[in-house]
Design goal:
Helix content: 40-55%
Largest sheet: 4 strands, parallel
Structural class: alpha/beta
Order of helices and strands: EHEHHEHHEHHEHHEEH
Strand content: 5-15%
CATH architecture of the largest domain: 3-Layer(aba) Sandwich
Number of strands: 7
Distance between the termini: 10 Å
Length: 230
């Protein structure tokens, strides 16, 4: 029997894309229309944002753990979180979790290594880009990384928090990401991580100046493999 996947949701669009990917691509591993059992719990995004705005990572972790316990209670075997930003609280969460987790940045770093990438640009919310979530995992595998310039971090954060998480997808947002990714390419990056789980809704290899690492779908596919093979 495949393992039961528990999704600790944060923002709706990213969580929905992760869930949809698991359900649709499950057929590739399990046969027509098949996928592992999947459950998701999502508190209000506003609860997370309040914690992030005051730098309260323990509060973030407590919200994640509340979801973890609810998912454990209904039979999930392991957990994933399709939100890069709140992985800042991961160490606090993992030590207290009732279930094991897959770490989104670890999954992305392993994919980058497998594809022979060397220097990875990081995009995402300002909280994520300023953090060590990706630098820590990339460096551990011998990969270099680059962050956007400060003004670009602010603009990307605005696009994500004012538009993408609210299901607003504008051509101007694509242009913004293309400009920032173009700078990363000029700075020696050979790939870029789409480090907000909503970014893949507007950016992919077809319109990015750099090869993309789609954190949302990579996590979903890692969860599928783990559920079916473990």
């Amino acid at each position: 029997m495949p393992q039961h996947i528990g999704i600790v949701g944060c923002s709706a669009e990213g969580a929905a894309l992760c869930y949809r990917t698991i359900c649709v691509e499950g057929a590739d591993l399990m046969g027509a229309h098949a996928h592992p059992e999947v459950s998701m719990h999502t508190p209000s995004l506003a609860d997370y944002v309040r914690c992030l705005e005051r730098g309260d990572l323990q509060g973030v972790g407590d919200l994640m753990l509340a979801s973890a316990h609810k998912l454990a209670a209904i039979g999930a075997d392991f957990l994933i979180c399709p939100d890069n930003t709140i992985h800042q609280a991961f160490e606090y969460v993992a030590a207290r979790s009732p279930l094991p987790w897959l770490h989104i940045a670890q999954v992305v770093a392993e994919e980058a290594t497998a594809r022979g990438m060397r220097r990875i640009g990081i995009t995402g919310t300002r909280w994520l880009v300023d953090s060590e979530v990706y630098p820590e995992k990339l460096s551990a595998l011998g990969l270099e990384y680059a962050r956007p310039e400060m003004a670009d971090r602010d603009e990307i954060n605005r696009v994500i928090m004012d538009e993408l998480v609210n299901s607003i997808f504008r051509p101007e947002a694509v242009t913004t990401f293309q400009r920032v990714m173009g700078k990363m390419k000029a700075g020696g990056c050979d790939a870029v991580v789409l480090g907000c789980t909503e970014i893949p809704l507007i950016m992919d290899d077809s319109n990015s100046p750099l090869p993309t690492l789609d954190s949302t779908r990579l996590l979903a596919r890692a969860a599928l493999r783990h559920a079916v093979v473990s």
